[in-house]
Amino acid sequence: MTTASQPNIRAHRLSKDEIEANFADLHPPLSRSEALIEAERCYFCYDAPCTTACPTGIDIPAFIQKIRSDNIRGSARTIFSENIMGGMCARVCPTEVLCEEACVRNTHEEKPVEIGLLQRYATDPVIDARTQLFARAPSSGKRVAVVGGGPAGMSCAHRLAVLGHDVVIFNRDEKPGGLNEYGIAAYKTVDDFAQIEIEYILGVGGIEVRHNCALGEDVQLPELLDDFDAVFLGIGLGQSNDLGIEGEDKRGVINAIDYIAELRQAADKSTLPIGKTVVVIGGGMTAIDIAVQSRHLGARQVHMVYRRGPEKMSASVFEQALAQTSGVTIHHRAPPTRILGEDHVTGVEFESDGDRFVLYADMVFKAIGQKMEGIGDLALENGRILVDAGHRTSLDRVWAGGDCVVGGDDLTVSAVQHGKLAAIDIDRHLGSANHG
Predict the structure, then answer these.
(1) 165 and 252 Cβ atoms separated by less than 8 Å
(2) pLDDT at 1
(3) What's the pLDDT score for residue 376?
(4) What is the pTM of this model?
(5) How far are the Cα atoms of 170, 233, 293, 350, 374 from residue 227, in angstroms, in the given order?
(6) In angstroms, rounded to a whole number, what is the distance separating the alpha carbons of residues 222 and 228?
(7) How far apart are CA 259 and CA 364, in angstroms?
(8) 143-238+372-429 architecture in CATH?
(9) What are the residues whose beta carbons fall under 8 Å from the beta carbon of 179, sequence distance 6 or more?
(10) Going by DSSP bridges, is the β-strand pair 336-341/328-331 parallel, antiparallel, or unpaired?
(11) Which of 68, 158, 184, 283 shows the smallest number of beta carbons within 10 Å?
(12) Using CA of residue 315, residue 380, residue 403, residue 425, what is the dihedral sign?
């Protein structure tokens, strides 16, 4: 995928120590004293707007109150009861546009309570100690297939296991975790946390994971329906969107999500080739992630170009600011018109206000979203699976959640909620007395 055959594309632009420093934890954890001081800032609002703003409905004042009383285990239980991936969400959630934006202390005069960091403070010790806070209910005798080992699938599998059902996860990758493992910037989830959290989730018992099993290739939906009482699809969006412009097939034009996956799995990040000058096309979180990481790997110039204005960018204001303070130049209202170069890319032509301009580049990253591969007879809308409030699809005994469904917003926290709601509905369908 990546190549150093061009003179301006090479590895080791920075020393290994410099790159390790660049990829250190974006938000270092709070100390006990820092956490207690921050917890004291919470007003513990009745009908707290922060809880309403949380896609998984975590009782935020309750978990912060428990931190104040040094009840870390109780605080973590409050979080995990609604969001079993609360550890990862504490790292990657755009809290600045969710719970923290809704915080009543978020005014011109003061900053909101640092809910994300407090959530990490509560969950990390429990995960590190492998302290299981939930026991499985008596066996229901029912089996559920979960297709996809990402946040939606893991959330669904855990809730179903707690409710007493046996779960088999069919995961297309070599590791579980989905985009948490392969698609998020390395500085957001350091020290292999994605796998540590997965191990914690699986520790509840009753969940089997089968790797390298892709739907439509290694396993088929009809056979899953024959072998299991219910099926949950958390398959994400498996294909990157094309730009649809001349020259897109030139060498050096790379899908951002593929490069990020390679970067996340690299034992030594300094070995990854990166261009001297990089152009990123897109305006979402993936575009920010690849742009910032290109700078962290030693790219001298990184341009991020979005076809609409800043108000339309799906990347949060915080993420946009992070890119700019990392040395990324952001251009708006400039759709690409063609890729320049003969065999290898040399630049990208854009159009802005009727004029055309060129940004020269050794590497171009496409980060304009992904689309779902076809999966048979399921009802779709705009290329995503239609589901009801309980996340049932148009097929009997099939549920779905995460990025693959209509309304999926490419957030880990939303995918976790989808998986949880689907598990509760599946449990009702299976006639268990353990749901709630």
Answers:
(1) no
(2) 52
(3) 74
(4) 0.94
(5) 13, 15, 43, 52, 22
(6) 10
(7) 11
(8) 3-Layer(bba) Sandwich (3.50)
(9) 150, 151, 236, 412
(10) unpaired
(11) 68
(12) positive
Which two three-digit tokens encode residue 249? Answer: 């097939």
The residues, ordered by sequence, that sit 6+ positions from 135 with a Cβ below 8 Å of its Cβ are 162
The two tokens of residue 98 are 């969710």
CB 297, CB 21: distance < 8 Å? no
**Same fold for the pair 32-128 and 240-370:** no
Question: In Å, how far from its chain's centre is CA 352?
Answer: 32
Rounded to whole angstroms, the Cα distance separating 366 from 286 reads: 9
Distance of CA 183 to the CA centre of its chain: 7
What are the phi and psi torsion angles at 290 (to 5°)?
-75, -35
Q: Is 250 helix (H, G, I), strand (E, B) or coil?
A: coil
Strands 230-233 and 143-147: parallel
* pLDDT score at 375: 77
Cβ pair 234, 400 in contact under 8 A: yes
At 357, list the tokens.
């301009």
Q: Which two tokens stand for residue 301?
A: 């110039």
Give the model confidence (pLDDT) of 360-388 as tens digits. Answer: 999 999 999 998 876 778 999 988 999 99
Distance between CA atoms of residues 352 and 27, nearest Å: 36
8 Å CB contact between 64 and 113: yes
Two structure tokens written together for 101: 């934006």
Unique residue bearing structure tokens 């976790």: 416
Regions of the chain short of the pLDDT cut 50: 433-436
Rounded distance between C-alpha atoms, residue 284 and residue 287, angstroms: 5
Q: What integer pLDDT is reported at residue 349 of this predicted model?
A: 98
N-terminal to C-terminal alpha carbon distance within the chain: 47
d(C-alpha 183, C-alpha 9), whole Å: 22
CATH code: domain 32-128 is 1.10.1060.10
Decide which of 3.40.50.970, 3.50.50.60, 3.40.50.1000, 1.20.1250.20 is the CATH code for 240-370: 3.50.50.60
